[in-house]
Design brief:
With 514 residues, the protein is α/β, with parallel strands linked by helices. Helices cover 39% and strands 20% of the residues. α12 links the parallel β10 and β11. α3 crosses α4 and α17 runs antiparallel to α18.
């Protein structure tokens, strides 16, 4: 069917047809049509959307990204025909039915994701299928290799290249801000590509953005790493394992992170940056992604086996995950806390101990420390100021202000303090609830939003002493976070009144503005 072209300034792929024209062609919304530039002979196939009001009959609306492939202009005539569905949709359907996917099938799916030949809802179907019918180790390897092969790779002329990753789930897990500069200060290269938060209050990239830009192409990441020894950048701005970032976009609304997808995501990024040595942090706890040590060891074995298949040395640290790392949750608050430690603060101990333990593992694996001596060497690098100096170099090479200090990083202007309603010990922390409150307050998009814990589990409080503070950039977000906090009760102090029956609202939450 020949139709008149109307270019639509929409920065995605798609073809918009009048409902009557679509019916005549024989397609429905979600089907695909092929459009042809009769002058040049170029053609492409794309998804169909329909309308009964935005276009007149006889007109084909073409989205900007689709038109980049065919080069039509308003008023041209294009031939519109039914297009064949990608075979990858059959593979995705097979996975929905519990089938095991082959290397070629997974490669086809990943290639179609990277090329935007699958619509967002079709990518979501793939994510959902692998969440319900988990990937086995062979499928994870196939997915990892396909992610690497469909993107750019870094290639350094020295070795070893070191990297680390935490699978997440623990609020305040800002250890990259200590681990990366410690490793770089030891003379190793660590090109740390990081993600933004999916389910948390701040991914490592969100945090680093408080101090410096994080969006760089792969070529610049390599140059910066070779210059300073380390970077902390956002992997989503590169063409390194691009399928991963497209998959993450579809995972985000559901706040899911399927195990197989997660392992492939982590290892693809590490493989693509040329990492030889990788330390994986697996937090274990009631509210973590991994709930017990048995499950954690199983996951660790999968990481290690996949590393062996890909030619990378992997070790995993199983860490305590039932409490936040440090006291700060949210980008600016976490950055402030990490900078203070780099500047010489001897607390919070949980942040220092976890960071030096993970960094120490990497130092031992790279031959920079003797067996069981890595944590001591890492702590020495931290206390000597060498890690701080290296971190300043990293900030500067990424375009930030290297002279910034912890005192310069400010949390949100709007703040409420939650105080103990009675004397007693803090007996319970609910990680997911704390993350939820920080997100409702605006984190991570509002960098200065978050939660600061004044007291952690085991701390004795007197009536009226602060338990935690909520920070926000906007007053309405703070009010919403307060209401969410009343509902979730993320911190329980011994003897607190949880509720009063028949009254439904707890009277034990006393908040005071400061």
């Amino acid at each position: 069917m020949k139709l008149s072209v109307k270019i639509l300034d929409i920065a995605s792929r798609g073809v918009l047809l009048h409902y009557d024209d679509a019916k005549q062609i024989g397609v429905f919304e979600g089907d695909r049509v092929k459009i042809l530039n009769e002058k040049t002979g170029t053609a492409t196939a794309d998804f169909v959307m329909t309308t009964s009001s935005l276009l007149v009959k006889g007109t084909c609306g073409i989205y900007r990204k689709t038109n980049d492939m065919v080069g039509l202009i308003d008023g041209d005539t294009t031939e519109v025909r039914v297009a064949i569905r990608p075979v990858s949709l059959e593979y995705i359907r097979n996975k929905m039915d519990g089938a095991r996917l082959t290397h070629d099938e997974i490669t086809t799916i990943v290639r179609d994701i990277v090329n935007d030949d699958l619509s967002p809802c079709e990518v979501t179907a793939f994510v959902t299928a692998t969440y319900i019918n988990t990937l086995d180790i062979d499928e994870i390897e196939f997915l990892t290799r396909a992610m690497v092969d469909t993107g750019e790779k870094l290639s350094f002329h020295t070795s070893p290249i070191v990297d680390k990753h935490s699978i997440g789930g623990v609020p305040g897990n800002k250890i990259s801000f200590l681990v990366v500069p410690i490793i770089a200060a030891a003379g190793l290269l660590i090109p740390k590509t990081s993600s933004r938060a999916i389910t948390g209050a701040g991914g490592t990239a969100d945090l680093m953005e408080v101090l410096a830009p994080v969006a760089f192409p792969a070529s610049e990441i390599q140059v910066m790493t070779e210059k300073t020894g380390g970077v902390i950048v956002w992997g989503g701005a590169t063409n390194i394992a691009p399928a991963d970032d497209k998959i993450i976009l579809q995972e985000y609304p559901f706040k899911i992170d399927a195990i197989g997808q997660m392992i492939a995501s982590v290892m693809a990024k590490k493989c693509a940056v040329g990492a030889d040595i990788i330390v994986i942090d697996i937090p274990v706890g009631k509210y973590c992604k991994v709930h017990d040590v048995v499950e954690a060891r199983k996951l660790a074995r999968m990481f290690i086996e996949l590393g062996e298949r890909l030619g990378m040395q992997v070790e995993c640290s199983l860490t305590y995950g039932d409490a936040p790392v440090g006291h700060a949750i949210g980008p600016a608050l976490e950055v402030k806390e990490a900078l203070a430690v780099l500047e010489g603060a001897d607390h919070p101990r949980s942040l220092i101990q976890k960071s030096t333990a993970v960094a120490g593992m990497a130092l031992e694996m790279a031959g920079k420390a003797g067996k069981n001596d890595g944590e001591r060497v890492a702590l020495e690098i931290l206390k000597s100021g060498r890690a701080l100096a290296k971190f300043k170099e990293m900030i500067e090479v990424q375009g930030g202000n290297p002279d910034i200090t912890s005192n310069d990083v400010k949390p949100g202007d709007h703040v409420y303090v939650v105080r103990a309603a009675s004397d007693g010990y803090v007996i319970s922390l609910h990680n997911k609830a704390l993350i939820t409150i920080a997100r409702v307050a605006g984190a991570p998009s509002d960098h200065s939003a978050g939660v600061y814990l004044h007291a952690k589990q085991g701390t004795y409080l007197k009536e009226g002493e602060p338990i935690f503070s909520i920070y926000a950039e906007r007053r309405w977000r703070l009010e919403n976070a307060i209401q969410e906090g009343r509902r979730l009760m993320p911190v329980v102090v011994e003897g607190m009144l949880l509720d009063r029956v028949p009254h439904t609202q707890s009277s034990s939450w006393r908040m005071s503005r400061i």
